Amino acid sequence: MSHHSDPAAALNQPPSRWGDRAFYGACLVGALSIGVLLLLVAYQLYHGSYLAREEFGWRFLVSSTWDPVEEQYGALPFIYGTFATSLIGLLIAVPLSVGTAIYLTELAPIRLRQPLVSVIEMLAAVPSVIWGLWGIFVLVPFLRADIYPFLQKTFGFLPLFQGPIYGIGVLTGGIIVAIMILPIVTSVSREVVRSVPNLQREAAYGLGATRWEVTRIAVLSYARRGIFGAAVLGLGRALGETMAITMVIGNSSDIAKSLFAPGYTMASVIANEFTEATTDRYLSALFEIGLVLLGFTILINIFAEMMIRAITTPETRRVA
Amino acid sequence: METNGNHRYRKFKNAAMNFVSVGCAVLVISPLGFILFYLLRQGVQALNWDFFTKLPAPVGQSGGGMGNAIAGTLELLALASLLGVPIGVLGGIYLAEYGRDRLNDWIRFWADVLNGVPSIVWGMVAYALAVVPFKTFSAYSGGLALGFIMIPLVLRTTEEVLVLVPRSYREAALALGLPQWKMIVRIVLPTAMKGVVTGVLLAMGRVAGETAPLLFTAFGNRYWSQHLTEPIAALPLQIFAYAISPYDDWHRQAWAGALVLIFLVFLLSAGVRIFSNRQKAGATS
Amino acid sequence: MPMSLEEKSIKPAALAPAHQATPAPVTEVRIQGPGQPAERKEEVVFDISDLSIYYGANQAVRNVTLQIHARSVTAIIGPSGCGKSTFLRTLNRMHELAPGARHTGVIRLQGEDLYARGVDPTLVRRRVGMVFQKSNPFPTMTIAENVLCGLRLNGVKDKQLLRERLEQSLRMAALWDEVKDHLHRPGTSLSGGQQQRLCIARALAVRPQIILMDEPCSALDPIATAKVEELIHELKRTYTIVIVTHNMQQAARVSDRTAFFYMGNLVEYAETRTIFMNPSNPQTEAYVSGRFG
What we know:
The complex is a heterotrimer of chains A (320), B (285) and C (293).
Chain A: H1 17-48, H2 50-56, H3 59-62, E1 66-67, E2 72-73, H4 76-107, H5 110-125, H6 128-155, H7 170-194, H8 198-206, H9 211-240, H10 243-248, H11 266-273, H12 280-311
Helix pairs in contact in A: 1-12, 2-12, 4-7, 4-9, 4-11, 5-7, 7-9, 8-9, 9-12, 11-12
Chain B: H1 4-46, H2 49-53, H3 67-97, H4 101-114, H5 119-131, H6 139-164, H7 167-175, H8 180-208, H9 235-243, H10 248-282
Chain C: E1 44-55, E2 58-69, E3 73-77, H1 84-91, E4 101-109, E5 112-113, H2 121-127, E6 128-131, H3 143-152, H4 159-172, H5 176-179, H6 192-205, E7 210-214, H7 222-235, E8 240-244, H8 248-254, E9 257-262, E10 265-271, H9 272-277, H10 282-288
Parallel strand pairs in C: 3-8, 3-9, 6-7, 7-8
Antiparallel strand pairs in C: 1-2, 1-4, 4-5, 9-10
């Protein structure tokens, strides 16, 4: 069995340097895509909003007129609606999430923990439009018939709870936002509570504290900043929430005092009116709203990411 | 020494807080139960063979289905993955195997920030890039928007699993005289493949349920799309359109569509878990 | 762990082809006594002059000069942190993968500068193989695939050759009989000692001329250790072996020459018998008699 050429000759060939270079280049392109995406999104929104920015300038942010017929555009109703629903969502979701995080880390039987965590992960996977569907046909009638009248009876002295009850509205939007941000705020809070070193807990137990006191003293105060970070992350998520809110908020560009009144958010107006925008200026105004939304979201997400990084160690950090 | 009263108060408070904590957990978990319950109850009625195969019936008429929307969602998923998976995986490899610490930290940071950008914004970008120049809504533009969402997701999940591959495999491969790229592609990547696939499936599950970016890119279609340069129907779009319509029959179909959609999403996300568990049980000791 | 791509791969160096080392006869078994004095004239395989190795600003190895001879076992001993592994890794250009890695001094492999401009490190590593402390068979590959990995992934396709090398390498690693009926099983399904021998077979399959071993038995039980030591006796008839070990008795059993490192310095380097029975340096004597380390 003689060979003319040595079958193991390949071992003496140096690997082509193109292999390493090409692969490295491809991977670099992949990594740089992040930068490209950032620039792309900023540029497109900036460029697309040119007409509106030219015409309205900074008034855009504080004017509450949204009149496509007269071509007068102002973003205030949407900024208000976005923050109102997000705030309500946070007020409902953060205490619930922290309570759940504590339950999962400190109180729940061990065998129950992973299934519960899986349930929360499944919750996070439910698409927004499905929440909206459920919102329209289940939540809204329920709120309109049972909860809101009760609220109005009890708290009707506040202007927040006065006025006609439709079922849809800002408060409903806030409730659905709360449901949607529960998973992420819970899971980040859980990571934060878990990362509190046991030493803290043990020290408190050693002083004779009850379990709740241990939690309050050792865990919560230590984890305060982390939980704040979780809340900010939830806020970032809430700002961008589109479909579910669009389906239950009522889509009215008036700012009303009552939480029962219909409202509008930045994402919702884009969703509803983008394909209806008949003129360039109309479209440009919507682009500017997108730019404002992007600005708020990026700022808040940067803040949240910085907080999370300052507090958690790399092992406990997950892709949110 | 503390009084009995104080002690009882503290015990009571402890018990009360336990109760509150459990209550929170119940409240947080329960929406999932509600959703699944209603989806099943309302959605199952309208599910039939027609639903999966037929086109929507004309306005006001009952019957018809969401065949085109289901097909459309699958096509859009394929397009989005074509963009999102290669770029995301390659970028993840860069972060895990190459690069300098400081640059990598930046990339990671901004990828996480990008993951928080509202999906409707990506729709607007895809609109400017792919709808305006060609003057038509299309499956391509919808896939583009969804692909934008996938890239930072897949990039981060890929990086996270690659970093878990023990260093000794890389050293052993290099010590055999393998060039670095082969070491990554033939040794490291296969070792981490389960995790990479998991990340991709999760990203697909997330993107399958997105509606907002499709509103003015894919746009929706009442008929079968013949070509990817035409507007295309998608499940979430159809659900949205039917839900806000005034027709009862369409409401029923919206529930059915939602049931199919959530089944698809859970299949992608949960199938991942089954896939990785079976692998764990099967092979290595 | 980001690894730098700072490897010089501009043009292939004129290093002797790796595969021309004579394959070990697969049927003969000869027993050699340990530490036989090597009186035959031997060629120098590694000629190391004035080598200092750094991690950034930290100096790990200071001004080491020594020569490694062909077809012998050279042991490197010393307490933890004395620079033995660092030294070993410069011999197959693995050290340069660490962040901030650099060195001064010259290492010649059969007369040629290992770090000359234009030398491709991957070619170096095919001539100088390595076995690691903890066995690391690739988890996605079978036993056969593991052994042949260095050949296949470097472009060798000839099925005949691959089959031959598979059996030869496994026999040389004293593993053939144990696994010949299970070659399709995952590499990780073997016991710890078997896995390490698998890694040795994997390193042998590319027919390197030198094998570096970095504490290869430290994770193994005594029986598995004994098997690997037997292996080393066999292998040194064909290969040059440099073994780092913190186990002095092992060094005494297995090697022809021993180098004692302490705090980055090469304290003494001589025939093993001398180092252990009659060391010239008092530090060496203190170490080998167990007074420290």
